[in-house]
């Protein structure tokens, strides 16, 4: 079995045909790893845009790609995709986060009128995989590729990043360092109908306290100093789609704000809890208690 680590560069363009913004792929970069995770081949192709008239400034700044070279390479998306399919063969596709797969689907739908990627047999999101392998628990933010590389002591030069092949190479190095067959098995998806429903599912926060998916039994906090269950001292309020309330620990007198997010994903409702310091008491004096409870 071979592993193909893919990275794409894309440019946001307005499609007059579809009256909406569209992420047009401008570069494919990929690395092929063999059974023993040795790099055996690479793939690097620019794509001539058919919708984008110019590159967004952040895209050209990040990638150093310019429109002239994209026009000069004179390759359509369909052409580069067919070359990439040959490169992929029946290998497993890997990418850092799902956005590359979603953008690939978006381009296939636009240019070839197909909603899925029939050439894809199996896929693994290496961002989720590496987070699990590193036991990374900050569920409020996802780990970036360069942060992961730094954690693993993999050297890279900042200004060579954000080109498809360099990013794919760096992703491969992270994968090689963190490879664990049993864990990988758990993160490997067969690209069936469920896979497409899961990957296109848009996560959202549930913040209506009457929603049955809000499990009230989860709405407690342990003191972050002594681990005893803290008492809630205010009503729940909602801010940024997150429930917040004041808590107090009766043992060590610690007071804090407990924040809970109920995030609906395709598979589950994730409960994310954070402890924050209470707002500055000096500011609180000028605010009536009723107001702070109603604040939304
Ligand atoms: Zn305590």
**Bound ligands, each once:** zinc ion
Tally of distinct domains: 2
Shape: elongated
CATH topology of the largest domain: Nucleotidyltransferase, domain 5
Polypeptide structure, described:
Helix 6 (145-151) packs across helix 7 (164-178). The chain has 2 domains: 3-200, Nucleotidyltransferase, domain 5 (2-Layer Sandwich), CATH 3.30.420; 205-294, no CATH class. The relative contact order is 0.11. The protein starts with a strand and ends with a helix. It contains 11 helices and 12 strands. Strand 11 (255-264) and strand 12 form a beta hairpin. The protein is elongated, with a radius of gyration of 23 Å. The protein has 296 residues and is of the alpha+beta class. Helices cover 32% and strands 27% of the residues. It has helices at 57-63, 67-73, 77-88, 99-112, 126-133, 145-151, 164-178, 181-187, 193-200, 281-285, 289-294; strands spanning 3-15, 20-33, 39-46, 92-95, 122-125, 188-190, 204-206, 231-232, 237-239, 242-248, 255-264, 269-276. Residues 223, 225-226, 228, 249, 251-252, 254 line the site of zinc ion.
Topology of this protein?
Elements: E1 3-15, E2 20-33, E3 39-46, H1 57-63, H2 67-73, H3 77-88, E4 92-95, H4 99-112, E5 122-125, H5 126-133, H6 145-151, H7 164-178, H8 181-187, E6 188-190, H9 193-200, E7 204-206, E8 231-232, E9 237-239, E10 242-248, E11 255-264, E12 269-276, H10 281-285, H11 289-294
Parallel strand pairs: 1-4, 4-5
Antiparallel strand pairs: 1-2, 2-3, 5-6, 7-11, 8-10, 9-10, 10-11, 11-12
The protein binds zinc ion (ZN).
